[in-house]
Design brief:
Blueprint: H1 3-9, H2 31-36, H3 38-49, H4 54-89, H5 96-125, H6 130-151, H7 156-175, H8 180-192, H9 197-217, H10 221-232, H11 241-263, H12 267-290
Helix pairs in contact: 1-3, 3-4, 4-5, 4-12, 5-10, 5-11, 6-9, 7-8, 8-11, 9-10
């Protein structure tokens, strides 16, 4: 399932700062401005999957506004605590255990936001008519074709080079620059991990099929929420064990790579990293003041 549609199903509230929207995507943007511009973007993304009626558009805009108010009041303070903790730890190299703990912390943010958003998503899905569900199904098919097309574009070496280039760009947003030695660590990581294209596509199709089946079944609201919770929060209950094992191995390799990069930071890079973190803290202050 596309990252974009995953965010849609959570009305993209989790994209504010969660495990499914990486912090690196915000590293070279004005987070406060991006946050403030989310409501119209979210409405547009929802409409891209189903052609909403005027009443549904008004409903989505009103619910997004309420969700943003809740997120500003309840989640931004948690993000502040998270960044303050990371800032304190950033004075020294991050250990593998610290990187893993930060990831688990972000997963908690994701789950908490998801639990708040899923009832709204359930209500929206129960409003959809047969034509709108057919539009969603067609969009799934189009998204999957695009996923496959982009995933197999070029040789394996070219695909690895593109992934390395993207990640180096993210790291430069955090560190200001990346040394040749650090780039080598990143290249080694991407050479060693498999693409998992087939597994990822199968995973997307399972989730998509279950979403469509849920909507067409039109269960009671609580049953719809429970079904969505299983699909988006409790994926370990239906995801194939061998795929879960591969994902866990990739995560561990990622934690080790980040810890290795952290140990190689120059004083200038560490200063740049801390400046970025302080920038997020200022953005949070700005957002809270504007609420």
């Amino acid at each position: 399932m596309t990252r974009r549609f995953h965010a849609l199903l959570l009305l993209l509230a989790c994209a504010l700062l969660s495990a499914c929207a990486t912090l690196t995507q915000l590293a070279y943007s004005n987070a406060a401005m991006a946050y403030s511009n989310l409501p119209p973007m979210l409405s547009w993304w929802v409409d891209d999957y189903v052609d909403m009626s005027h009443g549904q558009k008004d409903w989505v805009r009103e619910r997004i506004s309420r969700l943003m108010d809740w997120h500003r009041a309840h989640e931004l303070p948690e993000y502040r605590r998270f960044f303050e903790h990371v800032l304190a730890e950033s004075r020294e190299p991050f250990t593998v255990e610290e990187v893993a703990a930060a990831y688990r912390d972000l997963r908690k943010h994701y789950r908490r936001t998801a639990e708040h958003v899923l009832p709204e998503v359930a209500d929206f899905f129960l409003q959809l008519d047969a034509e709108q569900v057919a539009q969603m199904e067609k969009k799934f098919v189009d998204d999957n074709r695009k996923f496959v097309r982009e995933s197999v574009k070029g040789t394996p070496e070219e695909r690895t080079a593109r992934r390395v280039k993207r990640f180096v760009g993210h790291m430069e947003g955090w560190l200001g620059s990346v040394s040749s030695e650090q780039r080598g660590k990143i290249e080694a990581y991407y050479r060693d991990i498999p693409d998992l294209i087939e597994e990822r596509l199968a995973d997307r199709k399972v989730r998509q099929g279950e979403i469509l089946a849920l909507i067409r079944a039109r269960p009671a609201t609580e049953a719809m929420i429970a079904g969505l919770r299983t699909l988006f929060v409790e994926s370990q209950t239906w995801r194939r064990p061998e795929y879960q094992k591969k994902l866990a191995e990739r995560e561990q390799q990622f934690f080790e790579m980040i810890a290795g990069l952290s140990a190689s930071l120059s004083p200038d890079q560490r200063d740049h990293l801390q400046g970025r973190i302080r920038g997020f803290l200022r953005d949070i202050t700005t957002l809270n003041a504007s609420g």
